[in-house]
Design goal:
heterodimer; A: 114 residues; mainly beta; 7-stranded mixed beta sheet; 4-stranded antiparallel beta sheet; 0% helix; globular; B: mainly beta
Chain lengths: 114, 111
């Protein structure tokens, strides 16, 4: 398994502000994935964070809104910028572990935007 | 683009029953298929992973099968217990594309 520490676990933010979510993994990984889970919905991939290169964003997600940093092989941050109530979601980071590429998740960040 | 569908969306059964959760996917060229469990206010717990070359995987009371030709996977839970109550998600894909998730089956086991 993988130990993934994510923080904050939850936050309540005001419209127009930004929140940075941190994800720390217990060992080096090539790819780190950031997902969003909107209320009552399933998980949607936001972007893949690769160390030493720009993150790869999925359709519908842009760097200006969700800037990602990946300074080393065990850490990544996702910023939710200029927040609106529509950004209220659970944000999760995840990594593969093992040759089978089993995906493991952090405990998530519950974000509420007022 | 891969689409993953889970049926039923919700299921409530008495304790002790065996049950089957269904998952279908549109693109059979998958790397693997994973089943997860999500508890309220918590992250996802990986239950079983089936590689594309495999037909099934078992862990305790859980058995997951994969039929790539029909684009289907099932999660079988034997002798259900109240502690099995959670949302079960299946996801397919792998590699640099990550996983595509279904919307989940919300399972309630009645004591």
């Amino acid at each position: 398994s993988a130990v993934i520490s994510q923080k904050p676990s939850r936050d309540i933010c005001q419209r127009g502000t930004s929140l940075t979510i941190q994800c720390q993994v217990d060992s080096q990984v090539t790819m780190m994935f950031w997902y969003r889970q909107q209320p009552g919905q399933s998980l949607t991939l936001i972007a893949t964070a690769n160390q030493g290169s720009e993150a790869t964003y999925e359709s519908g997600f842009v760097i200006d809104k969700f800037p990602i940093s990946r300074p080393n092989l065990t850490f990544s941050t996702l910023t939710v910028s200029n927040m609106s109530p529509e950004d209220s979601s659970i944000y999760l980071c995840s990594v593969y572990r093992g040759e089978n590429e089993k995906l493991f998740f952090g405990s998530g960040t519950q974000l509420s935007v007022l | 683009k891969q689409e993953v569908t889970q049926i039923p969306a919700a299921l409530s059964v008495p304790e002790g029953e065996n049950l089957v959760l269904n998952c279908s996917f549109t693109d059979s060229a998958i790397y693997n298929l994973q089943w997860f469990r999500q508890d309220p206010g918590k992250g996802l717990t990986s239950l079983l992973l089936i590689q594309s070359s495999q037909r099934e995987q078992t862990s305790g009371r859980l058995n997951a099968s994969l039929d790539k030709s029909s684009g289907r996977s099932t999660l079988y839970i034997a002798a259900s217990q109240p502690g099995d109550s959670a949302t079960y998600l299946c996801a397919s894909g792998g590699g640099a594309d990550g996983l595509t998730f279904g919307k989940g089956t919300h399972l309630i086991i009645q004591p």
